[in-house]
């Protein structure tokens, strides 16, 4: 790791480590706001833009947007809303202790998400007229939800947290006036928190307590990209970010668990492991300059969610594995946008997007209450001078209402009971970035 990349990592690790991104923003648990510039047009043209180096997240060839040493910092402040209306809930009290208990009175609505900040950092250093080295730090995936430990669905989830931090090292090269290519290697650090109630609400069956899983892992990924300008003013771009394999290791700790429950369910503090593959991302984009002032952009982004079949946590003890099926499906996001050069200093942009959820109805859970999304975005870039500019964006995300119906038909819910709840979600996202050349 070079001196500059170490400094970039150390300067940002505190900010990144406290970021708790909400699933209310992006489909699945992907985070898509890695550039205030790109967000202003709803990621339209994300793999083909000549705007700045932050587009290198989707296509490493776009580090060639830097003609001089360049640093860019971008941040997205996510303000989600998620209202949960409980229809019914039962615990898993065995028949010998009186059978399932109705938990409906334990909670009616919940707002289980908090505002959060997601930062991104980029540094580019031209090595020659044609070759640029780049370093970036992003949070590609994140999920955060906290229902509290008293709500009726607590046996399915009380808290969920997933965070993936990626430090990338890239090289981009202009092969000709029309063609650029790039590649990067990425070091990922992922953390997972899964908490829920265990047992049942019936004292005769041992009562209930809390189980909390914390695990982390590192993984290696890569990205490849190409940008082609067949005719002046028309740019085609393609970028691919690979799957990342994680072998998570951590522990589970139980609190307020009675001796009766601990004995009956073999609950004991223990080490654990699980292997999870985070998905690949393919971005296809086109930008076309209609004239000196207007540029149109389009993107299609495919996330390979099919790599995530679910969670199957293996405990280093006699307790049974903890299983949660995802069965995600690969999905596409589509966006279209326009950039308008209002003046020599000010560029305006807007865009719309459709972001499809990978979650199947039958496997939707309190940890993945996901629905299809529609975006509408507005943004601007102001050039203070030839060396410094600032970008801003506002995105409103409209999310389809969904229902979580865990009716007991899945064997993995045998110890969790039943849950039926309706989710109404949306999000507002404010993004800002500063771009400086030296």
Can you describe this structure?
This protein is mainly beta and 438 residues long. The chain has one domain (3-437): Beta Barrel (Porin). Helix content is 6%, strand content 55%. The protein has helices at 3-17, 36-40, 259-265; strands at 70-90, 109-111, 116-126, 131-146, 159-174, 179-199, 208-231, 234-241, 244-255, 270-278, 281-289, 294-303, 310-315, 322-325, 331-341, 346-355, 373-383, 388-399, 402-406, 418-437. Strands 1-3-4-5-6-7-8-11-12-15-16-17-18-20 form a 14-stranded antiparallel β-barrel. A hairpin with a 4-residue loop joins strand 11 and strand 12 (294-303). It is elongated, with a radius of gyration of 23 Å. Mean pLDDT is 91; it is low at 1-22.
Mean of the pLDDT scores? Answer: 91
CATH class bucket: Mainly Beta
Tell me the name of the CATH homologous superfamily: Outer membrane protein transport protein (OMPP1/FadL/TodX)
The secondary-structure element order is HHEEEEEEEEEHEEEEEEEEEEE
The helix/strand class is mainly beta
Terminal Cα span: 22 Å
Portion in strands: over 45%
Could you tell me the CATH topology label: Porin
Write down how many β-strands occur, each being a DSSP E stretch of 2 or more residues: 20
Low-confidence stretches: 1-22
Largest sheet: 14 strands, antiparallel, barrel
What's the layout of helices and strands?
Elements: H1 3-17, H2 36-40, E1 70-90, E2 109-111, E3 116-126, E4 131-146, E5 159-174, E6 179-199, E7 208-231, E8 234-241, E9 244-255, H3 259-265, E10 270-278, E11 281-289, E12 294-303, E13 310-315, E14 322-325, E15 331-341, E16 346-355, E17 373-383, E18 388-399, E19 402-406, E20 418-437
Antiparallel strand pairs: 1-2, 1-3, 1-20, 3-4, 4-5, 5-6, 6-7, 7-8, 7-9, 8-11, 9-10, 10-13, 11-12, 12-15, 13-14, 15-16, 16-17, 17-18, 18-20, 19-20
């Amino acid at each position: 790791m070079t001196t500059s990349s170490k400094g970039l990592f150390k300067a940002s690790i505190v900010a990144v480590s406290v970021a708790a991104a909400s699933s209310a923003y992006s489909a699945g648990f992907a985070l898509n706001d890695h550039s205030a510039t790109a967000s202003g047009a709803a990621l339209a043209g994300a793999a083909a833009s000549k705007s700045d180096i932050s587009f290198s997240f989707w296509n490493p060839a776009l580090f060639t947007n830097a003609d001089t040493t360049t640093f860019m910092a971008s941040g997205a402040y996510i303000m989600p809303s998620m209202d949960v209306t409980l229809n019914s809930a039962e615990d898993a009290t065995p028949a010998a202790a009186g059978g399932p208990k109705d938990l409906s009175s334990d909670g009616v609505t919940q707002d289980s998400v908090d505002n959060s900040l997601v930062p991104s950092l980029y540094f580019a250093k031209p090595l020659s007229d044609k070759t640029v080295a780049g370093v970036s730090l992003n949070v590609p995936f994140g999920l955060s939800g906290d229902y509290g430990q008293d709500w009726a669905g607590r046996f399915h989830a009380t808290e969920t947290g997933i965070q993936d931090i990626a430090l990338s090292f890239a090289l981009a090269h202009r092969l000709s006036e029309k063609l650029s290519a790039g590649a990067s290697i990425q070091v990922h650090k992922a953390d997972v928190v899964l908490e829920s109630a265990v047992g049942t609400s019936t004292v005769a069956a041992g009562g209930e307590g809390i189980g909390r899983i914390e695990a982390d892992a590192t993984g290696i990924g890569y990205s490849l990209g190409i940008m082609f300008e067949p005719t002046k003013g028309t740019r085609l771009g393609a970028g691919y970010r690979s799957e990342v394999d994680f072998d998570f290791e951590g522990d589970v700790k139980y609190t307020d668990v009675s001796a009766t429950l601990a004995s009956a369910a073999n609950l004991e503090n223990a080490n654990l492991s699980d292997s999870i593959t985070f998905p690949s991302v393919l971005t296809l984009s086109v930008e076309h300059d209609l004239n000196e002032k207007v540029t149109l952009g389009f993107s299609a982004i495919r996330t390979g969610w099919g790599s995530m079949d679910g969670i199957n946590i293996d405990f280093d003890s006699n307790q049974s594995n903890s299983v949660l099926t995802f069965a995600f499906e690969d999905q596409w996001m589509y966006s279209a946008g326009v950039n308008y050069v209002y003046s020599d200093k000010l560029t305006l942009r807007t865009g719309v997007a459709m972001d499809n959820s990978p979650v199947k109805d039958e496997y939707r859970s309190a940890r993945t209450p996901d629905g299809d999304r529609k975006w509408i975005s507005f943004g601007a870039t102001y050039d203070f001078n030839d060396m410094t500019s600032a970008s801003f964006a506002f995105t409103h995300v409209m999310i389809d209402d969904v229902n979580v119906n865990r009716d007991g038909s899945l064997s993995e819910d045998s110890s969790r009971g039943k849950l039926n709840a309706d989710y109404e979600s949306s999000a507002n996202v404010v993004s800002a970035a500063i771009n400086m050349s030296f």
